[in-house]
Structure formats: C-alpha cells, structure tokens
Fold Cell division protein FtsA.
Amino acid sequence: MSQDMNLIAAVDIGSAKVAAAVGRKHSDGQVEVLGMESVKCDGMKRGVVFNVEEIVNAVRMVVSALEQRLNIKLIDVFVSVSGFNVRAIGNSCYRFIKQDELIKSFDLEQLLQDSYRIVLQPDEKILHVVPQDYAVDHEKGVKKPIGYSGQRLEGNFHVVIGTRSDVRKIEKCIERAGLRLNGLIFTPLASAEAVLSDEEKEAGVVMVDIGAGTTDLALFQDGVLRYSAVIPFGGNVVTNDIKEGCGVLQKHAEKMKIQFGSALGTMAREDAVVTIPGISGWEPKEIAFKSLACIIQARMEEIIELIVHHIERSGYFDKLGAGIVFTGGGSMLKHLVELTKLKTGFDARVGGVSRARSFEEEELMRVPSFATVAGLLVSAGKYPGSVITREQELFEDVEKEEPRVSKADRKKNNGTKNKKPKRDKLEYITGDLFSRLAGMFEEKDTEM
C-alpha cells in the first residue's frame, strides 16, 4: 500500500525475476492495475530465499521504477510465498450451538480460529486457513450457514502451512528494501484470483503456475479451494536439461528454450537447426529443432505426470469440467497445451490476467509470467491469514511492579493504600496461566 490509501502494492519474488505492481481497488470491487515492473534475479531457488542481498537490490529497483513512474511513495506491500517446504492439509472442527439460537458469523469465526490451533512440526507456521464448506447437524455441503438453525456446526478448512524460517527470510528482504510487509499470499491462490473465472472454479479446474523454481497448483471445485501443492521444480530444470543434453552454456540453453523450444517432439521441424556460437577457440554448434524438442518433452511429461498424481490424490479427478489452466513463465512453452491434452485427456489452456483491468499495462496483462503479481493485487486481504498482525508479547498483560514507597511517603498519602485489582473468577486465572505457559514454548518471530 502507498501513502494513497486507495492504492495496493505487491511484490512477487520468483526464482528468475522479481516483479512489482501497483493497483487501485474501485468501489465495484474491480482492481485497476496502474503499473508493473520486473527485473531479473536469481537470489531464490525452488521458492526459498538464498541470496538476501541480491533480492533486496532487485526489490529496490522495481519499487523505485514504479515510484518514479507513478509519482508515489510505496510503504506496505503484499508478497507471494511458495517453496518446496510449503504443504497443505485438510482440517475439520465443530462447535455446538445453543438451543433456540441461530448460527451467526461469530460461530464461523470461532471455527476458523480453532483451525489455527492444530499441531504443527517445529519451525512451521500457518499461512492460510481457507473455509471450504460446513455441515449443520446432518446437512452437509452448506456454504453459507449463517441464519441456519441447528445444534451442531462443523466446518471443513484447507490449511496452508509454511516454515517460519522461510517467512522470516522474506520479511528480512522486504524490510531491508525499505518496505513493510502487509501480508503473504500463497502463489497459486494469487494466480488463480487473476486468471480463473468463477465459472471455471464452479465446474472444477486446476490452476498450474509453472515458475522457474517450482510448479504450484491449486484445485477448485464447486467454487471452493479443494487442494493445493508445490512441485519442487519448474522451468529451470528444463533449461538445465538442454544445457547438459546439448552441451551449451546456461544462457544459450535458456534462449533456445524460449525462442525455438517445443513441448511436443512431433510438432518440431526435422529439417531445421539452430546454430549456437562456440566458446572462444571452438567452432559453432548446430542443434536440430527435433532434438531440442525431445529433450524438453521428456521433462515436461514428468511435470505433467506429477500434476496428474496430485489431481488423483485430491479425489477430484472425475470432477474437473474446466480441465487445467496454465500460467507462469513456464507456461509460455510452445505446444504445452497439446502435450497436456495428449497425456491427461483434460482440456487445457494458457491463461493471462483476466480478473483485473488496466489501461497502462495491457500487453503485460496478457503475459502469463505477470499473473501472480497481478493476482496479489486482486486477492489482497481476501484469504484468512494473509494479513500480517503483530504477535502478542509474552506476559504483556501482566501488571508492572509498583515502586516501593517509604513510610514518610505513606503518611503524606493520608494513610491510603494502593490496592491491586482482584480477579473476579478463579477460572480466568488458570486459563490465562495455561495460555501463557503454552505461549512460552512457541517460537517467537524476531526482528531481523
């Protein structure tokens, strides 16, 4: 967010680039993208920050470019989060409703808070708790139970979990760049908000964001997030395969993939070759389009097989009426849609930003690699847990010890005594003590 409270700012830190965007949310709910910038950066690997200084410099560059273009000062930003350490689980919890009372929003909020109390592994942190549906007594699949009459309310939630250490690294990068972290949003959720239509989410669809370091997916059915996962490799492994298979430099392998690569070997021309400049003292090297396509196809088939594996694991394999929608930089590979249809039988398409409008960045809005940063603007504050709040200090509600008063001072106070307020109920004392003791064993975020 900037000094203008109507503006929203976002930063997408990827394994190949850092992108930033500024938008304005209008009264009708539509988001207008005012500007987007990006710069190459490889300080992140497989979704995890490794080179903090390089990422900080990249964030400063894109933010400075946006500030100069739009004549604004950015302060708060929403940031994407992914990585091979991110996992997701389903969780159910319930509560009883008092007799003769209707279900209220307070009851839903209590169920949501209960899902934050699940047992986690050391160093883990809940990123999102996304409501799926509810059950009122014996009626299941209720999306909006407010106003229902029942005795037992049960909620099903999708819980996205990351690691505290990875989150702190992102916070460190943002703070060192002179910004303030407004919230973290799981990458495929942000991309889905920018690319998918409500009809696709209703029919059943898988959002697949192929980045340089990871491939993130989110499955929606009946308008609800049902499943999400992170595949720990993406477009960079394809580049490495070309480098090893063709014996060329990394920069040449990346250019070959983008300009001449194909995900389907049968679609490549057999009589065409690309000439790669040789290292000083070596002759140029010729590589056939067919050979290049076969190398790419082998790796893309592996990624598609893992996507199918996660779809089967979700239990919604037969309920995807809208198929698979690709986005991200890796989705720009030629003939990816044809290969996906061939291997999975699902309908497929490559999606750009469709849930936001822009007069300044019409061309970039059609580029899949900018879907995540635009999605951060659209989904800002939507997903529970995405907004950063200050953690409560340990024992911060304990009364401060009063200074000792001499006998002379006591006489001056006309013999009046300062009495400490008493607790009304013993149950409050024990409950408060237990919550404090439990908090002692939770790892507290420290400022880096």
